[in-house]
Structure formats: structure tokens, C-alpha cells
Amino acid sequence: MKVDVNELIYRAMTMADIPAIVDIEHEAFTSPWTAEAFTNELMNNLFARYMIMEYEGQIIGYGGMWVIMDEAHVTNIAVKADFRGQGLGSCLLAELQRTAVFFGAVKMTLEVRPSNEIAQQLYRKYGFEPAGIRPRYYSDNNEDALIMWAELDHERLKTGEQ
Predict the structure, then answer these.
(1) How many domains does the chain have?
(2) How far apart (Å, rounded) are the C-alpha atoms in residues 122 and 145?
(3) pLDDT at 56
């Protein structure tokens, strides 16, 4: 389904969203988070900020991060399989960066599989640069993680530019 990005709605994740989020997790990742993991994030992690991307009343993506002091650490970001390839991951990442700035972050970090070139291209578009490796980070195949960092451009993000 073709999405009109002007019709996207972003909002905070709620407990009621968890089943839909877990479905997207299973589509997107070989080691998906469980419902319990998301419940713990929403109920017990004061640093956690999770957001939903909706289109026509349907959850089509989500992203999460921890904002600690002036740093934001992206924990997960995914778009529902039927909606991929339309630049929605880009929209979601831009919204995460704007939200991080709102909560006082000046930098953002994340880990990505070295084999995930598509994600790396997206992250580079938003200012992320490689900064290190976490050896055997991914438990499903012991693949390393590429650590990437971005400085958050407060002026650009406050005006909503991408």
C-alpha cells in the first residue's frame, strides 16, 4: 500500500500497542524482542522513549530509544513488511531524532549489523558515522555490531527539516 507521508501520525507507544509491535518485530528481526521486553521498557525504564507510526489507524512502524543525559541510544526501529521501501524508515528516524532533541539529547548512537547495508545507508543519511565495533553482539549468529554516532542538529530538527 502506498503511504502519503503527510498522513502519518506519530505518538507515544502504549501497552495496548505491544501485540502489534511484537508482530512487526517478528517480521523484521531474527532475534525479536518479546512482549515482556516491551512491557518492561514502558513500565520500568525511565530513560525509554518509544514511538508509534500510524497510517489510517494502523500501526505500520515504531522506534525506540533511551535518552540518558544528553545522549540518545536507539534500541529498535522497524517498519511493517508491507510498507517497506517507501522511505518510512527515514521518516521514523527523523521523528526519533526530533524527539531526542526535545528530551535534551545532542548526540545519538545505535548498533547495526555490518551486513545490513540498507540500514547503514539510512543512518548515514541522518549523520551517523561508524565509531567502533561490538564483537559478537548479535546472539542469533554472533555477528559483530557496528557502532554509529550522530551529532543532532538542533536548529534543523526543531524546524522539522530532514
Answers:
(1) 1
(2) 16
(3) 95
Neighbour count for residue 68 (Cβ, 10 Å): 12
Q: How confident is the model at residue 14 (pLDDT cuts 50, 70, 90)?
A: very high
**DSSP for residue 162:** -
Looking from the CA of 153 toward its CB, the CA atoms found within 13 Å total 11
Alpha helices in the chain, H assignment, sequence order: 18-28, 35-44, 88-102, 117-125, 154-158
Would you name the residues annotated as active-site residues? 111, 123
Type of residue at 83: F
110: domain CATH number is: 3.40.630.30
The domain containing residue 125 runs over which residues? 5-158
State the cell numbers at 28: 523484521
What mean pLDDT comes out for the span 110-134?
93
Pairing of strands 9-12, 145-151: unpaired
Place of cell 503511504: 3
